[in-house]
């Protein structure tokens, strides 16, 4: 006899109680305290107008369950009455179910059983949720799977904390090394040219091609591809090793898109015309100037100087040329640039580790949650 989700979960509709914390479902962080959210909204409802959620329950957002918006309660609390609260029955481990509900197969089923004329109106009501056919593994297997997937989650969370700590540390250092109030005031054009003249590159030269998608929002050159110069034709932005790329168009500029060009094939690169190019007078200043373009002050000031119509607004080259900087000494600039670049290198390594862990977890979920790889007592 086929089983359904309703065989393993009931719809908890108990009213909330005073004194319990208000919780919210998030897309990536499970069920969190509303007070801990950056963009929290105050509820006008009394506690008893909320729904009670008990430790071990799963709450889900009816309008976004088809995207995986659900959370596992680690403690008792109260949630919005717009949520559905699932109380586990015998035969299901809710910790396993939380992982399971994030799998591609289950998200597809949640979408298929949601009701609404358009995706922005889809809702997964409990009655429809309860009808979804499932075949969960044994309770023993569920618990083994939880141990494995929780270990990956812990590694992911630890790496995220390391990245956040490194980012905070860099922010604290930036203020000290880039904004020396005792130094002489100047402008970017004192140390660099913006959008310098192109040099002649022969048609048979292999060069690096960089699109907007190839630069990160943390100022890194993530990828590049080799192209033959003659095959590119005209209409691209030319740059060289040691140049700094800054996205000029919204929202790429505001989001921090840009990079310090290094490791270009034959030392030459071409890319989208939506890049401004900053070429230091002295190559040793490249890291320092690159870090200036990554500062919040640079991005906020540039956003205010944008010109053009909505969706096509761009930062003018004159803004970069005339952006005020502190002209600290030559050695101080190199030291500051190298120090901040080292923070970026460490964060890039951590970001790569985080991406690998997430990829590994997706592979595990595919194997474990679909039954392709049953777990024995030992798992390597």
From TrEMBL:
One annotated GO molecular function is: endonuclease activity
Q: Where does the Type I restriction modification DNA specificity domain start and stop, copy by copy?
A: 68-160
User: Entry's Pfam families?
Assistant: Methylase_S
CDD domains for this protein: RMtype1_S_EcoEI-TRD1-CR1_like (cd17260), RMtype1_S_TRD-CR_like (cd16961)
Question: Can you tell me which residues the record assigns to a coiled coil?
Answer: 340-367
- BP-aspect Gene Ontology terms: DNA restriction-modification system
> Lipid metabolism among the record's keywords?
no
Per UniProt, the keywords (alphabetical) are: Coiled coil, DNA-binding, Endonuclease, Hydrolase, Nuclease, Plasmid, Restriction system
Q: Which InterPro entries match?
A: Restrct_endonuc_typeI_TRD (IPR000055), Restrct_endonuc_typeI_TRD_sf (IPR044946), Type-I_RS_S_subunit (IPR052021)
* Sequence similarity: Belongs to the type-I restriction system S methylase family.
* PANTHER family to which the protein is assigned, alphabetical: TYPE I RESTRICTION ENZYME MJAVIII SPECIFICITY SUBUNIT, TYPE-1 RESTRICTION ENZYME ECOKI SPECIFICITY PROTEIN
Q: What is the official name of this protein in its record?
A: Restriction endonuclease subunit S
């Amino acid at each position: 006899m086929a089983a359904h989700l309703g065989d393993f979960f009931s719809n908890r509709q108990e009213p909330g109680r005073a004194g319990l914390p208000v919780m919210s479902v998030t897309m990536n962080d499970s069920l969190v305290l509303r007070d801990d959210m950056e963009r929290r909204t105050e509820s006008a409802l009394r506690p008893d107008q909320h729904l009670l959620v008990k430790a071990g329950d799963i709450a889900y957002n009816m309008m976004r369950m088809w995207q995986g918006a659900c959370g596992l309660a680690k403690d008792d609390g109260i949630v919005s009455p717009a949520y559905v609260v699932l109380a586990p029955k015998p035969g299901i481990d809710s910790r396993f179910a939380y992982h399971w509900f994030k799998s591609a197969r289950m998200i597809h089923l949640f979408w298929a059983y949601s009701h609404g004329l358009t995706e922005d109106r889809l809702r997964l009501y409990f009655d429809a949720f309860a009808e979804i056919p499932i075949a969960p593994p044994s309770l023993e297997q569920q618990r083994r799977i939880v141990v494995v997937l929780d270990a990956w989650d812990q590694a992911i969370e630890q790496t995220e904390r390391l990245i956040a700590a490194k980012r905070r540390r860099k922010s604290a250092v930036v203020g000290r090394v880039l904004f020396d109030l005792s130094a002489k005031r100047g402008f970017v054009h004192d140390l660099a040219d913006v959008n310098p003249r192109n040099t002649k590159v022969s048609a048979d030269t292999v060069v690096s091609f960089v699109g907007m998608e190839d630069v990160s929002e943390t100022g890194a050159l993530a990828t590049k591809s080799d192209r033959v110069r003659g095959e590119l034709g005209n209409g691209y932005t030319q740059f060289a090793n040691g140049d700094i790329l800054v996205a000029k168009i919204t929202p790429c500029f505001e989001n921090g898109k840009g990079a310090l060009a290094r490791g270009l094939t034959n030392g030459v690169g071409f890319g989208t015309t939506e890049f401004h190019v900053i070429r230091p007078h002295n190559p040793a200043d490249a890291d320092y100037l690159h870090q200036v373009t990554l500062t919040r002050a640079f991005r906020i000031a540039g956003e205010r100087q944008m010109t053009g119509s909505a969706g096509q607004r761009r930062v003018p080259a004159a803004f970069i040329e005339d952006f005020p900087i502190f002209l600290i000494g030559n050695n101080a600039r190199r030291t500051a640039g190298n120090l901040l670049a080292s923070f970026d290198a460490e964060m890039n390594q951590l970001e790569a580790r985080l991406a690998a862990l997430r990829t590994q977890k997706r592979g595990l979920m595919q194997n474990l949650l679909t039954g392709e790889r049953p777990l024995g007592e030992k798992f390597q």
